[in-house]
Amino acid sequence: MSRAAAVAQAEAQFDTGAFFSTLAQRVACRTESQNKARAPELRAYLDEQIAPALAALGFACTVHHNPVAGAPPLLSAQRLEDPALPTVLFYGHGDVVRGHEGQWAEGRDPWTLTAASADSADAPARWYGRGSADNKAQHSINIAALAAVLAARDGRLGFNAKWLVEMAEETGSPGLAEFCTQQRDRLAADVLIASDGPRLRADRPTVFLGSRGVANFDLVLVAREGGHHSGNWGGLLRNPGTVLANAIASLVDGRGVIRGQGLRPPPLPAAVRAALADIAVGGGPGDPAVDRDWGEPGLSPAERVFGWNTREVLAYGCGNPAQPVNAIPPAARATLQLRFVVGTDGQRIR
Question: Which listed CATH number (3.30.70.980, 3.30.2130.10, 3.30.70.360, 3.30.70.1350) goes with 213-284+292-349?
């Protein structure tokens, strides 16, 4: 079978509705990792959806207990053809965020995959369902692609293949790092394909050759027990909210520009600038408008998101925003994040 025939076979999965049917079965699995009551569904997804699909392609599958007590299990799978061949490790996660039943547009059910009419005759229909964009469609596509390659090559991939599927990505992947350390030999590979991210545009395939590192941390200031009336004590007591706001302002200014040389990356390499020259970020249906005057001056939107560091405030808590009172709050807390590119001293940041 030729490469063109293999591609045609893969495309037929969509044209015949076979892929839609497979994905619909997986979307119907209520794998909400943020809901502790869904533990049986998380395990069942590996046992009933992923393991059988991979076993049918010749993979030896194992479902492992999570190294973190109470956290969902993980699946590893191997299909080894020849030690001399390169090895590809695929990553995916079967868990999803909460379904939020009753809150979807047009009365859609999060656990039922539905196809909405296209906006134009040239545009494909859009599929809706919890997990259809993160991450059940992605790992289902990769499994279907492996099946197409096997058919094209008479039962051989031409490389060794491994899988790692977790069920707790949406809760911070507890136990994943420990598991990978414990199973480093089993998971060893030459290439990692981690299909868990967006396409820049629906009409243009995206292959990311890497991603920015991430470092999260909390800033917490507890000044005293209980709040004190601002009329009686304002100007006498240190306000944790004010102190914390100024601490954040020392790290990133009011236009999103990072302060402090230790948090900034080296100058953008010419090769990276050239690679990003024709990359457009945003502009698709549902995308927010890009703030042109936000972030590092002199960089394009693509350069800011793919070639530069960013300091983000993820959460900020002080007093009771829902019901504010005339009291100086006793404490304040913020969660910050640094997304950083190659060349940044990640160990120093941590």
Answer: 3.30.70.360
